[in-house]
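Good day; I would like, with your permission, to put a structural problem before you. I would ask you to consider whether the tokens describe a fold that such a sequence might reasonably adopt. The full record is reproduced below for your convenience:
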Amino acid sequence: MAAKIESIDVWAGDLLNRPERLARVLEALASAGAELEFLVARRVSDRTSRVYVAPLKGKKQKQAAADVGLVRADGMFALRIVGSDRPGLGAEITRCVAAAGINIRGASAASIGKKNAFYLGFRTDDERKLALSALRKRFGKRAKS
């Protein structure tokens, strides 16, 4: 599998558990021109949910994110791997990172048709760089940082 592998910045924030809160965040980002490729939202407690989004580009999108309580998720160093999907791909990606001695902090993936997008989070930027190097060796020349 030749894959496109990139380092990405993830933005995050905590929201009150109310029906309109996630919609408000997404509307603000859309109004600023954001075309999100990654969204995870989950309940943290009875009162709070947490949302993660990526990518945000430019001053206008980042200001819109700040206006609705999102910040760049410091301490979350992420990679995005995009390529052709096939059975066992997640196992291959995570085994490649594990074989390099790197612990994955978090993972999310989705497949649509024959394409797959896999997101990996690491504790440090050094871990992300080591994982990027290992994944480049395993998954081809189209990879980039």
In short: The chain has two domains: 10-72, 75-139. Residues 7 and 79 are 5 Å apart (CA to CA).
